[in-house]
Amino acid sequence: MTFTAKSGDNIYRILQNNGLTDSHFIEEFINLNKNKLGKDNALIIGRKYILPKLIESQTDTIEVPILDVPQVRFITEPLFGRDAEHVDLIDQKLKGGVFYLVSGHGGPDPGAIGKIGKNVLCEDEYAYDVTLRFGRELLRHGAKVYFIVRDPSDGIRNELYLRNNKDEVCYPNSEIPLNQVERLKQRVDAINVLYRNERQGTYKRCIEIHVDARNNKKNIDLFFYFNEGSKNGERLANTLRTTVEQKYQLKQPGRGYTGDVSSRDLYMLKKTIPTAVFIELGNINHARDQQRLIYENNRQAIAKWLCDGVIEDFGK
Questions:
Q1: What is the pLDDT of residues 242-264, one digit of tens each?
Q2: What is the pTM of this model?
């Protein structure tokens, strides 16, 4: 029996899905496919792999008591980097959910640029880091996630000042054009092809993450946009906004929250087939908003809060 690897697949998940749960199947799978695997035995998207055979006698074993010990389940996503690529699956709250995550700009376009002293802040780097963290949280709850903008070298980073580079690609591995219309069309096409080919999932959402640029005196909270007429998009945007506001009230009582939800006539919102929401994380030029971006724990908190909002919307 064979299968063709897709985004998010890894050896452990494939074996589990096919009932090959014994540990020796991992070694057997690697031996069967040793010339087809990537670094650290990662599956390569689009490549065909052979599954080990489940011999009937292997199930004919002496029954042993089942110990009340939770089974450790995890998947591997190399995009997260060596320190974060192993993702523990903690529950199935988002099983049946498929997400197409897009971080703004990338490749030859860094997007909005801010400064802290001599340090340059590039929108695409911070949006990408939050997007990876957000996707990782979704995966932990059983979702299927496609990262449309991809950087094979960055991974999830914990530094204050994220180094800018231009090696991001568009799914699966296409060079990102400088022209804005071409760049957006490339992303829409990638999402819509994945959507049409996706056989699983009853809840499919495209979420795009950006950082805004305004004058350095304009402090803003997270803003959410949806395509006019999209009831599902409006509901998701409102649920995300409410969730973030509640988290701030809990963590910083009395802070207040001014981020809002509105419809916007944006290319990505109009052209993607799955319901889409567009998020602005803050003003890259404002000192207070910059703290939201540069500190690793703040980026992680945003990712976790957005995931909590998605879980609530998924439940509806």
A1: 999 999 999 999 999 999 999 99
A2: 0.78
Q: Report, in this order, helix, strand and coil percent for the chain, each rounded to 5.
A: 35, 20, 45
Distance between CA atoms of 184 and 298, rounded to whole angstroms? 28
Domain coverage including residue 44 = 2-70
Identify whether residues 200 and 57 lie together within a single domain: no
C-alpha distance from residue 120 to each of 130, 296, 298 (Å): 18, 16, 18
* Interacting residues of 34 by C-beta distance below 8 A, sequence separation 6+: none
CATH of the domain at 270: 3.40.630.40
Contact 25, 15 (CB under 8 A): yes
In the DSSP assignment, the letter for residue 78 is: G
CA gap 148, 207 in Å, rounded: 10
How far, in Å, are 53, 57, 197, 264 from residue 229 at the CA level? 50, 58, 25, 10
SS3 of 7, please? Answer: coil
How many domains is the chain built from?
Answer: 2
Q: Give the confidence band of 22 by pLDDT, cuts at 50, 70, 90.
A: low
Distance CA 138, CA 98 (A): 9
pLDDT at 9: 83
Residue 39 sits in the same domain as residue 147: no
CA atoms within 13 A on the CB side of 220: 20
